[in-house]
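Page header: ASSEMBLY MODEL / three components / 1146 residues total.
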Amino acid sequence: MAEAVGTAADVKGAKGSLPGWLEISLRFAQQRPLGAAGAVIVLGMALAALLADIIAPGDPQVSNYALMLRPPSAEHWLGTDSFGRDILSRIIYGSRTALLIGFTSAFFGATLGAVIGVASAYFGGRVDLMVQRFMDILLSFPLIILALAVVAILGTGTMNVILAITIPMIPRCALVTRASALAIRETPYVTAARAMGFSHTRIIFRHMLPNVMAPYLILVTAFLGQAILLEASLSFLGLGVAEPTAAWGLMLRGAAVEFAERAPWMAIFPGVAISAAVFGFNLFGDSLRDALDPKLRMG
Amino acid sequence: MKLRRVSVCMIALASIVITVAMAAEQPKAGGTLIFAVGETPPSFDGHRETTFAMLHPLAPHYSTLLRFDADKYPKIEGDVAESWTVSRDGLTYTFKIRKGVKFHDGSLLTARDVKATYDKIIFPPEGVASARKAYFAMVEKMEAPDESTVVFRLKWPSASFIRQVASPWNFIYKADILAKDPRWYEKNVMGTGPFTFVEYVPGSHWVGKKNPDYFVKGRPYLDGYRAIFIRDTAPRVAAVRAGQALIEFRGFNPAVRDDLVRALGDKIRVQESPWICNMTVAINNEKKPFDDVRVRKALTLAIDRWEGSKALSQISIMKPVGGLMRPGSEFATPEAELTKLAGFGKDPEAARKEARRLLKEAGVPEGFAFTLKNRNVKEPYEAVGVYVIDQWRKVGLNVTHLPQEGGPYFADLRAGNYETSIDFNCDFMDEPDYQLIKFISSDKSPINYARYKDAVLDELYEKQSRATDPKERLKHIRQTEKRVLDEQAYTFHVLWWYRIIPHWARVKGWPITPSHYLNQDLRDVWLAAE
Amino acid sequence: MQRYILKRFLLMIPTLFGVAVLVFLLLRVAPGDVVELKYAGVGAFVSKEAMDQERAQLGLDKPLWRQFMDWMWGIARFDFGTSMWTGRPITYEIAIRLQLSLQLAIMATVVAVLLSIPLGTIAALRQDTWVDYVVRVFSIAGLAMPSFWLGILMILGMLIFFRWLPPMFFTPFWIDPWANLSQLIWPALAVGYRYSAVATRMTRSAVLEVLREDYIRTARAKGLWEKLILTRHALKNAMLPVVTVIGLEFAFLIGGLVVTEQVFNLNGIGMLFVEAITRRDYTMTQALVLLVSFSFIVVNFVMDIVYAWLDPRIRYQ
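Prediction written out in full:
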């Protein structure tokens, strides 16, 4: 069954004449076409974000009141919004905001979570119990509610939104990595490192963390999609990124809906952008999960 | 001769048309009016609340002493007062109360109830909040010499007093209830209005039904009404469009109006009016470099209001350009005079040049960065924020927009924790006492967030408020306006709001007014056949 | 087993207490307060003294520890106090919204189960064929579309193409089942679709795992369906994670539908939550957080017990 193969190690073993990374990618694409499709979407988005200054046809922030609510045309492929700003440019620049927020919060959320999870598993006993209780407390808040509370305290704006999204992700990652780390803790490898008198920090960072890489990577990709959605929800509620910054959720807010009949392009395209991005990340992450660890299950 | 016959004929024809129209407009009794409300009421007490979300569902349960005649705004007429007289010195107002006005519990309304109501508003007991108490500073005391007479004695003659007792917020409450528990009305309803209370499901809907004992004969026309609370704009618009709500009384933006008209044609009737609400830029006069009048003046000069009006009126509820008093009101500054004020001129390029010069003179560098705080409400707050920032960019200022939730937004405004901020004001009537109080020294006015002290403005305010001669009053108002907006540029209006109510044409007898707080008792509203 | 249950049960208490402390502190740290917002209305001209008076009435002038103790003492007597915004009892305000939220959560769960179990099973049985791919794309798309956007498109679509809109206010099921369902079915579909995505994926991997069991692999001669039937017992265990996911998601649906409720104008717990937080209605927010956390913790507790019952090793850990 195809499910059995496809771990990174297996692919490496079958080295051909192509460079290693290309070989791996091709293999991945062949065995997991869905994952490859996801990767393509993600790559496209990353390129758009990187090259926004070059490829975007206009400035995403400058209003032009002579060009309000124009339908898609040769000059404005996706039309203009209620301030006369080019929607395509705003979507392209919006990918920057989405990736910035998505990556930063997924990375910090997963990393902090992994460190806490692993440390908690490593120390065990009372520390573990305390940490677990605290994580339980955070976990029992719905994601969006915790994010709302953080924004209520810190205020809106890109940086605060990143924090608001990162914090609820930490306990979710800690939970998963702790489970993986518990298994590693008892291996002779870690016991030996302990016997040799290595410092706790060294054991955690050098010996245990690398071993939870698989769940960690899977979590990062899963969080990326979630972070983008959460950012969109917060911006939609007016608690996220501030005008006139280009951000997808923000583009869907207010006017986009009120003008939906007269200017449906305002409500449709940003929504498509969000869906496509999250779709890409999830598709890719899903296949990555299957590839890295077919047994690993998570919500 | 022939000509005359034709004209006679035409007159005859015209009168037929008119009578036909009149016949068609004969009010019809019955039916339930369903309307949408964009917020939920906090408490039920009109004396303490400040939101339309309390007025729209609750006003039909109550009467006030006087009321604005919606057809002839700003004319006032009696509500529970039958008539009133003013003493020659302007210090004593005597109101005659209608006989036979009944509370919904069947008891009769007397002068005692009116006095108790105004005692609660003007001299609230310990622990009872009264939102508009400060506006009644001129009242010394009230008396109820007999069952149907209420006398107000003032400390000084006031130009605004008589209109203030027509305030839609000043519901007449029952004295016996207030005596027992002055906070009873926060959670209960007992009035003399055209509709009695049926049900309130918090967050969902409010239901009222016809008061058969209402003191105006033949009113109300409706059997009842139902207010449904729809917080988000999109479903609120959808509800009107689908006919689930026949009207929304606050107002929609022009795009929604166009969509509704296009989709429903002549089933929709549109009423529009300038609105006694405006968007303001508050400037923190204590922070550098905004303590420099040249910088503040540059900020107002940079904003092209006429162009802004053209653009923003297509996408938002902002439209009229005006000074401190609503354009179109009896107190408004004529356009010819208005355009002489900084930032209100019609030559934007010259104004921008002047703004750049002033900035340079004040030592503000090109690309100077500061923040504009705002409330995270899409419209009209964020729309005007985006506009102002764009305008300031054109004179070389680099401004960051910081929209905030209501809580921190108001906290920051009050505490002066901002550089510049979008601010706003809304009143139920055109009245300088109301619209100008924002501009007296900030230690005297809790709603002046610009943090300056100016004895000249304080004096002007008092003078205009006590002026008995309208001309003299107008003079003081003009002086205030020139000082606030031009000479000192402490803080300034951007645009006034424009109220647009697209509603089902079946809803009759509800003429629009310049305020969404007025004319909400629904007593003259009726529904035509579908 | 009893000891385990008791231990797990007692562990719920510190967690709930921790939630209470955390939400209490978070709210007080957030800038702005309910009094500020009450008088924020336009045209208000309220002095600082009047506002301080109002604060005193709400008990906001008391020291923090005192406010916390008052709250705890109230909870101990099942008295959650009154809303700082409306002044009405919190239990009354919540009860009104809970009806709708519970019903919506149940309907969305039904939609999710009806979608995910058959889809997940068929995807596993036809692993790596187009059927599998279609199912996966369908379910991942559900995860990817912001549910508020889906909701907006649904409403606009119905309005523009069918000139019809679901009712904008809630009617209890026993009063008018038709009005009730025609309002709630749409959000239930939008939310249930999204929520089915995770469950579909879990079902798929659960079935795959069972199919990989040795004795199943050897039974090559049999058809896939027969294999499944053969392993009903194994499947039951493998499906536990699916049940967990559905259970936990159910707990979150009660308070977490913040944006969807706004789009469909549902007077539910999620909407109340946002309003309470943005109005700085401390008492209401605290009660809501406790309610949502409590339902989540209880679901967790039940799941733990079920696991322990099925797998005795857990009990002795």
